[in-house]
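FW: tagging you since you asked about this chain on Friday. Here's the raw sequence from the shared folder, copied in full. Didn't touch anything.
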Amino acid sequence: MRGNRLGSIEGDHDLDFITSLVNCTKLKILVFEDNSLKASLVSSSIANLSTQINWISLGINEIHGTIPSGIENLVNLTFLSLESNQLIGTIPTNLGNLHEMRALVLGRKKTLWHHTIVTW
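HL: got it, structure written out here
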């Protein structure tokens, strides 16, 4: 679901729907780019998604906070895109434990990172 402006005008809970996806054991792709979603990535249940998921794209939103260290639970993740959000902090070192990861796309609105692509 890209470019649908699904985010709320007020509030900070636009990623709460991820909790309802935790039981989707065959979920492989999650794309909610460019939707003005406002929320903390840490408070979302993203690290509890199916271990079968291999593609997460949440770029171009208003997501803030840090990348949760629990994301290493997503052992089949090959692509993670969080560019053009308001993330702070460091990239968790345990992302290096994701042996299937091929691309990590990070960018930050207005400061520091700008569409950095790390591949391994």
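FW: Residues 1-8, 110-120 have pLDDT under 50 and may be disordered.
HL: agreed, and The longest strand covers residues 62-65.
FW: great, closing this out.
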